[in-house]
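Q: What structure does this chain adopt?
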Amino acid sequence: MPAAGQEVVSGYRIGPKDVLAVKVLEASELDVVRRVSDDGTIDLPRVGAVSAAGLTAREFAARLRALLEEKYFQQATVEVEVREFRSRPIVVIGAVRNPGNLAFSGRWTLLEALTAAGGLAGEHGGVVHVVRRAENGLSDQVTIRVDELLVKADPKVNIPIFAGDLINVPAAASLTVYFLGEVATKGAVSLRSVDRASLLVAVARAGGLTDRAASEILIKRKEPDGRTSEIRANFKRVLAGRDPDPELQDGDVIVVKEAFF
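A:
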């Protein structure tokens, strides 16, 4: 994704319903703020309706300058700024309070866009996806963790948002695992996607292991092809950080056998 917001704004092509601010240094009475009509034109003092659709702000300024120099000035200095990007709005979907299109100034951050959409809904998951489409049709996606944006307030993840961006806030999914054997609470344990679906988290949700539990834990998993696979984990080593904490999947059966002393 482009790092500099101005690079994206300067390359933006004007469309219907965009709001433009026009400034003519030689004649302040020509300074106006106008909305582009549905047919892609903008009505300006002295020059009338001028086609703006498909041009960048710089290209449209050059067109106005040529028209003014042809009829009124020997030399004109024209500046054009896109104030509202309504032809290519930001789209926010998923677990926000007010999903839909957002018209914006072109200088928003991710946090400002989410706030404009009413904030995250209660069922939001742990990540936000930002999809940006380039002029050549290719798209790029950045995934931001919600806790880094809202809890840690890391400025590096509060990325700039531009015209045409799609912000997707997936709802929290849940997975269920099943405990057998030496745990405080046997049976089903549900984990949301905002949690880290790992063995340690699941054991904590099950109330922990009993005093009789063996160190080795067996995770039984049904694979898509129907066969059953097994993952063995040494709980003491995982708890001490010496072994990785196994990631769990929906439907896993966790067997904690009794230790024999």
